[in-house]
Amino acid sequence: GGAGGAGAEAGAAAAGDDSIRSRSMGISLTSFDMLAVLGRGGYGKVMMVRKKDSGNVYAMKVLRKRDITAKKQVERTMTERDILCSVDHPYIVGLRYAFQTPTKLYMVIDFVSGGDFFTLLSREGTVGERRAQLYMAELLLALHHLHEQGIVYRDLKPENVLLDKDGHIKLTDFGLSRFFEQKRTPVSDLNLEKHAGDGGSDAGDGDAASEGGGGGAAAGGAGGAT
């Protein structure tokens, strides 16, 4: 029934959130080397970073709490984080770590190196029938998974379909997505009231890193960053 389905969705989201919290214990800016700025937007920026202990490369979304609050984007930011915690699918970008400082939020997500579908179409004009079938099948599987989790995507466009190094898609940017039954997450979870000043713990989050990122694509924008 509907109640059972809603309960299952809530349980899956909670399990995903617990997994992210557990994985993010002890993670901070010092866990990463900042490699390049991939994009900038109204609320922050997206960095290409390398995790020091594993050497894995990710995209780090850096959001300023002050700007999120001032521009009334708190609920949207919380929903995006909740959605990323709820999904686990090969054709959707994954949230790997999440942490915060007194002034900023950090979401560490998959770095997808093959660019986006808009750039592909601009460069090649068209794609062959077999490739188009593959992309469409993977996209439908990604959307089906979101619907199974009670999520409506709401922002399907070529710029939000990334391609990995093997030519498979990754759906990204969940800023406009919503749960069918909107969940409410306490604002205090993000400590958004603590946005005065810029503590030393934010130092080294990539302001000095070079622009560009070797042609890769960030997994999601930072309030308009691409």
From TrEMBL:
Transmembrane segments: none
UniProt KW keywords: ATP-binding, Kinase, Nucleotide-binding, Phosphoprotein, Serine/threonine-protein kinase, Transferase
Bias (Gly residues): 211-226
Keyword Repeat included in the entry's annotation: no
Catalyzed chemical reaction(s): L-seryl-[protein] + ATP = O-phospho-L-seryl-[protein] + ADP + H(+); L-threonyl-[protein] + ATP = O-phospho-L-threonyl-[protein] + ADP + H(+)
SMART domains: S_TKc
Keyword Transferase: yes
Domain Protein kinase: 32-226
Enzyme class: transferase
InterPro entries for this protein: Kinase-like_dom_sf, Prot_kinase_dom, Protein_kinase_ATP_BS, Ser/Thr_kinase_AS
PROSITE patterns xrefs: PROTEIN_KINASE_ATP, PROTEIN_KINASE_DOM, PROTEIN_KINASE_ST
Enzyme Commission number(s) from the entry: 2.7.11.1
Region described as Disordered: 190-226
GO molecular function: ATP binding; protein serine/threonine kinase activity
Residues that coordinate or bind ATP: 61
Similarity comment: family membership: Belongs to the protein kinase superfamily.
Name of the protein in question: non-specific serine/threonine protein kinase
Protein's organism: Bicosoecida sp. CB-2014
